Amino acid sequence: MILRHQKIGGPGLIVEIDESKFGRRKYHRGHRVEGQWVFGGVERETGRCFLVPVEKRDKDTLLTIIKEWILPGTLIISDWKSYNCLKDEGYSHLTVNHSIEFKNPENGAHTNNVEGMWRHAKASMTQYSRKKHFYAGYLAKYMFLKVCRSSGLNPLVEFFKLAAQVYDPNGQTLDT
């Protein structure tokens, strides 16, 4: 089981990145959504992912997250040309323009995997009591269960193993 995040991607690997707003339509009408913006990515070859709640979706904020979560040498695919600065940071970058097509006919770029991740992550959250200050926990739970399922591990057993590393019932101090 992974206790800390591990960077995804690397030379020869593809990571799709995107932002999505988690929340509900105001008064259950229209398109406006109140909630939390989340930035994330999926490694196409393995399905490993990251999800980070963000307050700002500006270039500096997202580039910092990319550097924290994605290894240099990765081919990054997005639906936003503003990430063109990625080439200067040691990444390759392809884009798809969703207002024209879902798959770039010139280079085959698409973001179907990250879009699917959004659907599953949002479906995993309860419909009620989505508090903005709990989103990091909601996202951590989703990623924890995703790792357990993809590794064939029992989530409850893994949770207890991790809890035992933080809390020792014999009263001994544990390093965290």
Structure description:
With 176 residues, the protein is of the alpha/beta class. 30% of the residues lie in helices and 21% in strands. It contains 4 helices and 5 strands. The protein has helices at 59-69, 112-124, 135-151, 155-166; strands at residues 14-25, 33-43, 49-54, 75-78, 92-95. Strands 3-2-1-4-5 form a 5-stranded mixed sheet, sandwiched between helices. The protein is globular and about 60 Å long. The two termini are 15 Å apart.
Question: What structural keywords apply?
Answer:
single chain, 176 residues, alpha/beta, five-stranded mixed β-sheet, 4 helices
Give the SSE map:
Elements: E1 14-25, E2 33-43, E3 49-54, H1 59-69, E4 75-78, E5 92-95, H2 112-124, H3 135-151, H4 155-166
Parallel strand pairs: 1-4, 4-5
Antiparallel strand pairs: 1-2, 2-3
How would you sum up this structure in a few lines?
The chain is α/β, with parallel strands linked by helices and 176 residues long.
Distance N to C terminus: 15 Å
Radius of gyration: 18 Å
Percent strand equals: 15-25%
Query: What's the pLDDT, averaged over the residues?
Result: 82
Q: Structural class from helices and strands? A: alpha/beta
Can you list the strand order of the major beta sheet?
3-2-1-4-5
Number of β-strand runs: 5
Main sheet overview: 5 strands, mixed
Name the overall outline. Answer: globular
Total helices: the number is 4
**Helix-strand pattern, N to C?**
EEEHEEHHH
Low-confidence parts:
none
Helical proportion, percent range: 25-40%
